[in-house]
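Please produce the structure of this protein holding LIKH6CAM.
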Amino acid sequence: MDVHPDKLDITITFAQSLDGKLAGPDGAQIALSCSESMQITHRLRSTNNAILVGANTAINDNPQLNTRLLPTEEQRNPQPVVLDTNLRLPPGCKLVQNFVAGKGLQPWLLTPGSDDLDWHHRRRVLENAGARIMIYNPNSTSHVDSIPSILSTLSFNGVSSLMVEGGPSVIQSFFTAHNKYGSIIDRIIITVAPMFVGEDGVGYNLPRSDGKPAFIHKDSFLAGKDAIMVLEPTSA
Ligand SMILES: NC(=O)C1=CN([C@@H]2O[C@H](COP(=O)(O)OP(=O)(O)OC[C@H]3O[C@@H](n4cnc5c(N)ncnc54)[C@H](OP(=O)(O)O)[C@@H]3O)[C@@H](O)[C@H]2O)C=CC1
Ligand SMILES: Nc1nc(O)c(N)c(N[C@@H]2O[C@H](COP(=O)(O)O)[C@@H](O)[C@H]2O)n1
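Below is the modeled complex.
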């Protein structure tokens, strides 16, 4: 399979503490960003045509993934995408509710599919509730190796710019896929909040660099109490 079919522009973005944590103990949601940096995150959402999160984030946080913090005339909601192998997303979640209420785009749930009868039952329930289930290459054997198929599926369905918002497991998969398959990520935008979470928080790791940094600094600025840092791949 072509790893870079109509290459999507991919921005990885998230907020982390000074000790590199994105979530609290057991992956619990924590408020890291201040209102100023959160507004920048919403602006970034408005400049991408899709936003992707993992199933745990979609389930734990019940996010809206919209641009409601921007002035009305600047609000442009990205296509919400959830990586949800086992279709665990509750059909009553805000992403589905907002779509049904005409306040959001139809959420796309990406999965490699399953032969399991319960999986097919959950598919019917989610589709009846309003979600769209999209199957990517069922031969994908791991989360990392499924990234190229996921990106092909999004590209085939008209997505050209994608914001990957988390959580840590999804970010880790994208970093590893970038390292394994060549340039997938175009930039990383990290909000660094001046606080510590502690060792029971959840962070991420980058693959071994062998002395060559995979990403280099491009820009830094302050937003309220937070620092926002932009990095790009060394090869870009
Ligand atoms: N600080 C920040 O900016 C952010 C923080 N968060 C926090 O992160 C927490 C959750 O993080 P985490 O537990 O790591 O979970 P994720 O949100 O990263 O979801 C991981 C799950 O997504 C599914 N998945 C499907 N395909 C892939 C793939 N290719 N790569 C990785 N995962 C895949 C898997 O479940 P399955 O196999 O069942 O499909 C996996 O267990 C949330 O509670 C949230 O608060 C989230 C976003 C941003
Ligand atoms: N930028 C940022 N800062 C934080 O402190 C966060 N906890 C997150 N989390 C992400 O934002 C999603 C919530 O989105 P909505 O407000 O519901 O639109 C959450 O699910 C994480 O993806 N992000």
